[in-house]
Design brief:
48% of the residues are buried. With 265 residues, the chain is of the alpha/beta class. The chain has 12 helices and 8 strands. Helices cover 48% and strands 18% of the residues. The protein has a single domain, classed as Rossmann fold (3-Layer(aba) Sandwich), CATH 3.40.50.1820. D-malate binds next to loops. The site of D-malate has 7 residues, from loops.
Length: 265
Amino acid sequence: MKQARVNGVELAYRDEGVGAPLVFLHAFPLNQTMWDGQVTAFAGRRRVVTFDWRGFGASSAGDGISGMDVLADDLAGLLNELQIGRAAICGLSMGGYAAFAFARRHADRVEALILADTRPTPDTEEGKQGRRDAAELVRQSGPAAIAERMLPKLLGPTTCRDRPQVLSQVRAMIEANRPEGIAQASLGMAEREDATPLLGQLSCPTLVIVGNEDQLTPPSDSEKMSRLIPGARLAVIPGAGHLSNLEQPEAFNRHLAEFLGTEHG
Ligand code: MLT
């Protein structure tokens, strides 16, 4: 794993393969290894970049709240370090929230967008309180308590029944994170802006992906979102919950490859 100093933090990243850049943004509260199946599948034909958000995995934490604008600017800084101007950006869930902020703040750097298991709308008041409670919980009881609370919602019933090893893999990712990084991002998500007004202004090719068993950002949200983005395509993946790339990697990679193949030759 390589390290780059960006905006006062050390970001751990991978940069593999050659070709048009394709950057993957991980979900909360995981790390960049959630994209291993995509790195393997795409590094033969693209320049694939993954990294740990500040406070996650092997990246250091910042001092304040990890808001989505902060994450988006970290991404821009990392791309600068890697001398990448424009890239296809694939964000899942919190990665998608950060991708919206990146598209708002650095629109000219977005070649294409892949929005997986995410939503443009901000949290309700109840949702914001839930984020504050989660920050408190992780600071007091550690990441295992967050894993316990989130795991039943992150994975779909098909994965829990047929591929229990994915459950162990996700639990291990969550438990390896530091409490403060999780707390800072939880509070950051609570503050995120409504990205709905941005959707109609997106002019890059966009693919929306969602697992048909996603409880956190259900397919109905993705259908609505894809209708608001000019020319967007929608792919619904059977047998996947919220972590569609981990739960059904072959289907996820097929949709992504078809999209990138058509849009970028
Ligand atoms: C994620 O997968 O990134 C989180 O579930 C996002 C969220 O809690 O809204």
